[in-house]
């Protein structure tokens, strides 16, 4: 039985999903109702991977909703863009991004990551916040020396 590769482009308002094997595409809300609709759209077909890019705070609810039940693969946005460019894709729309994420997952046979614990996720958020504060402190110190 064919294992499906799904690409999901996540934005503030919606999710664009693309199933590589049959070319099916679907747009859903980026909300709990949209997550339920995505589960229904995926059906019972075996899924090899769901490829997505981290998008600031917008991917966190998606990741929390599916990390324990579906094989999620988070890819670097720059690498995904370079993959699309290597394929000659210059368009930058949500639907095109979802399709390219699915293609990237299949081309590189990307493996899903084990879900992180809540504590690790909190530590990662704190690390990002600390890095931002250090950057702000450096900027302010540099301004004060002028």
Characteristics:
single chain, 146 residues, alpha/beta, Nucleotidyltransferase, domain 5, 2 domains, 5 strands, 19% strand
Structure description:
By secondary structure, this protein is of the alpha/beta class. It has two domains: 4-113, ATPase, nucleotide binding domain (Nucleotidyltransferase, domain 5); 116-146. The chain is built from five helices and five strands; from the N terminus they run βββαβαβααα. The chain has helices spanning 32-42, 60-66, 77-86, 94-107, 118-144, and strands at residues 4-10, 14-19, 24-29, 47-52, 72-74. Strand 2 (14-19) and strand 3 form a beta hairpin. Helix 3 (77-86) packs across helix 4. The relative contact order is 0.16. The mean pLDDT is 93.
Layout of helices and strands, plus pairs?
Layout: E1 4-10, E2 14-19, E3 24-29, H1 32-42, E4 47-52, H2 60-66, E5 72-74, H3 77-86, H4 94-107, H5 118-144
Parallel strand pairs: 1-4, 4-5
Antiparallel strand pairs: 1-2, 2-3
Helix pairs in contact: 3-4
The CATH superfamily of the largest domain appears as: ATPase, nucleotide binding domain
Mean pLDDT: 93
Q: Name the beta content range.
A: 15-25%
Number of domains: 2
Shape verdict: globular
The major β-sheet equals: 5 strands, mixed
**CATH domain class name of the largest domain:** Alpha Beta
CATH topology name of the largest domain: Nucleotidyltransferase, domain 5
Q: What's the end-to-end separation, in Å? A: 66 Å
Query: What helical percentage do the residues reach?
Result: 40-55%
Briefly note the structural class of the backbone: alpha/beta
How many H/I helices?
5
Number of strands: 5
Write the element-wise H/E pattern from the N-terminal end onward: EEEHEHEHHH
Order of strands across the widest beta sheet? 3-2-1-4-5
Using the CA coordinates, give the radius of gyration.
Answer: 17 Å
Q: Which architecture of the largest domain would the CATH scheme give at its second level?
A: 2-Layer Sandwich
> Low-confidence runs (pLDDT<50, min 5 residues)?
none
């Amino acid at each position: 039985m064919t294992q499906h590769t799904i690409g999901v482009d996540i934005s503030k308002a919606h999710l664009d999903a693309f199933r590589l094997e049959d070319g099916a595409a679907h747009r859903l809300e980026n909300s709990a109702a949209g997550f339920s609709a995505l589960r229904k759209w995926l059906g019972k077909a075996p899924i090899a991977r769901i490829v997505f890019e981290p998008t600031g705070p917008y991917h966190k609810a998606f990741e929390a909703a599916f990390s324990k039940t579906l094989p999620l693969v988070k890819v670097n946005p720059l690498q995904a863009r370079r993959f699309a460019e290597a394929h000659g894709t210059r368009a930058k729309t949500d639907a095109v991004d979802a399709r390219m994420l699915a293609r990237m997952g299949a081309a590189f046979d990307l493996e899903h990551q084990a879900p992180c614990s809540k504590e690790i996720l909190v530590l990662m958020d704190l690390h990002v916040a600390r890095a931002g504060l250090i950057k702000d402190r450096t900027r302010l110190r540099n301004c004060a020396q002028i």
